[in-house]
Backbone:
């Protein structure tokens, strides 16, 4: 497997898409800090309120999108150039091929995430002149964000490894990341809906009208709410949103536990199906 | 050119990504309407779906036209005596028809559901028709932009990624313009005028304005979209004529 890893990393450092993604993430981080700085200049909030964990970990979701682009094209090339089949022919096991690809994809995703964190940190220091104290909460969020980014890579890899066409594989992975982001938005907003609309009185043309309190139809109830709450804990994009919104569950350990479960399940399923895949 | 168009349309109506995009559009629209089936505003669902139409077009256009590069059809067309300009325009027309099918699918779905359930029109029919024309034109303009990359980038996979990045980038840039327009420092001046025009001219900017109910410039949006199509097609044709098709 060490030979596979060496070959993969050699390809990674020369991969234009990887460097393109790194530049995108760098630009995105600068854009985030500059927008926050403009807001700060305008409304004169406390600097500490502007550069916080929310700002630093706020774009973990964006990393999922960039990771999807990278994985789709990087792994797709192995199929289009016949590299995947050659690896088998020279005697490498399918499990070793799968895991070496997983390692390089996780490494690339983490590098993109670290690029975002470092750029935000340094640009934040220049713009605001101070930074959040690296306390226990900061390190906890940092650790969680690393596990979540790892889960993104572990989720996207099976799709890329199982679809032989580079274009279809890339499309499927990128759309999957969009679906996960949209799902996080939908779940987050649904769970934050008020259960009831308060009673209110309004006056039109001198006449007073009274509207009684009523149920909010958008508020998820019963099993639907349970499913939404479970997905809010399980989906890595939802976990990333929780970091951004500083909305940790009562027991924060739920986040890394579910992310680890996602990594284990997707990797096991991906490796299992890949072992049976017809590589033609 | 009529032969090119006929060949493209035959391929279009057998294209699986097109039918897949249409099916997903129907499913998304259905689930957007169904929870509110007892009372919903039809136009709200259609407007909110427009960005998805642009997303699905970003998948469909490169997959549909990328096949021409991967199967070398584009080279065969040139060899058989068609001009590059004709090839480009035939591709534009056929891709635009596909995009219009994708973008009008939610409208048809919502209309059927409005007749079946309790759908209403919140705005006047004239305003609805104006916004719908603007949205359709904006989708066609995005198609013109996607076509540039689809005709110039030979790799199908790179094409898909590029058009998806264009879609995502357009939203990102338009959201930034929107943020900048909110700043009091930019309440007037040349920069504001430029940003305001950029917000009105970009197809995503038009869609976002219609979504939030800012329809005062909607009458001009189709004109702007036509300008975008003309500029994109002019630029695309110019480079495509010089492209090495190997």
Residues:
């Amino acid at each position: 497997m060490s030979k596979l890893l060496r070959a993969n990393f050699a390809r990674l450092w020369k991969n234009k898409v990887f460097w393109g993604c790194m530049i995108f993430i760098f630009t995105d981080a600068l854009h985030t800090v500059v927008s926050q700085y403009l807001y700060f200049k305008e409304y004169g909030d406390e600097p500490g309120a502007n550069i916080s964990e929310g700002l630093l970990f706020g774009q973990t979701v964006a990393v999922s999108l960039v990771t999807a682009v990278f994985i789709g094209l990087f792994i797709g090339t192995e199929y289009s150039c016949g590299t995947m089949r050659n690896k088998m022919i020279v005697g490498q096991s399918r499990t070793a091929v799968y895991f070496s690809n997983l390692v390089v994809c996780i490494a690339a995703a983490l590098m993109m995430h670290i690029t975002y964190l470092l750029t935000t940190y340094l640009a934040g220091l220049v713009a605001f002149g101070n930074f959040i104290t690296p306390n226990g909460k900061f390190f906890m969020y940092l650790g969680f964000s690393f596990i979540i980014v790892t889960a993104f890579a572990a989720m996207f890899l099976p799709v890329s490894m199982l679809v032989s066409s580079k274009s279809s594989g890339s499309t499927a992975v990128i759309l999957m990341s969009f679906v996960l982001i949209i799902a996080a938005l939908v779940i987050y907003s649904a769970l934050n809906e008020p259960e009831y609309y308060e009673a209110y009185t309004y006056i039109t043309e001198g006449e007073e009208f009274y509207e009684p309190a009523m149920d909010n139809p958008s508020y998820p109830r019963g099993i639907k709410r349970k499913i939404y709450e479970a997905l809010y804990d399980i989906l890595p994009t939802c976990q990333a949103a929780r970091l951004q919104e500083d909305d940790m569950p009562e027991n924060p350990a739920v986040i890394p536990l579910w992310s680890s479960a996602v990594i284990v399940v997707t990797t096991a399923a991906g490796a299992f199906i890949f072992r049976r895949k017809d590589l033609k | 050119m009529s032969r090119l168009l006929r060949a493209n349309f035959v391929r279009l109506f057998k294209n699986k990504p097109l039918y897949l995009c249409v099916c997903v559009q129907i499913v998304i629209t259905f689930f957007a309407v169904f929870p509110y089936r007892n009372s919903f505003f039809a136009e709200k669902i259609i407007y909110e779906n427009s960005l998805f139409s642009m997303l699905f077009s970003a998948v469909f256009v490169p997959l549909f036209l990328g096949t021409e590069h991967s199967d070398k059809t584009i080279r065969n067309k040139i060899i058989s005596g068609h001009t590059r300009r004709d090839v480009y325009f035939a591709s534009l027309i056929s891709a635009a028809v596909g995009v219009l099918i994708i973008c009008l699918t939610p409208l048809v779905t919502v209309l059927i559901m409005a007749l079946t359930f309790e759908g209403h029109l919140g705005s006047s029919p004239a305003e609805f028709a104006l916004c719908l024309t603007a949205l359709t034109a904006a989708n066609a303009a995005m198609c013109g932009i996607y076509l540039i990359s689809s005709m110039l980038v030979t790799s199908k996979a790179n094409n898909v990624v590029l058009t998806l990045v264009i879609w995502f980038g357009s939203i990102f840039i338009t959201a930034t313009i929107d943020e900048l327009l909110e700043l009091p420092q930019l309440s007037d001046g040349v920069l504001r005028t430029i940003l305001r025009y950029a917000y009105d001219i970009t197809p995503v900017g038009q869609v976002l304005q219609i979504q939030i109910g800012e329809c005062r410039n909607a009458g001009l949006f189709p004109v702007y979209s036509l300008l975008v199509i003309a500029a994109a097609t002019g630029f695309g044709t110019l480079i495509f004529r010089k492209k090495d098709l190997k």
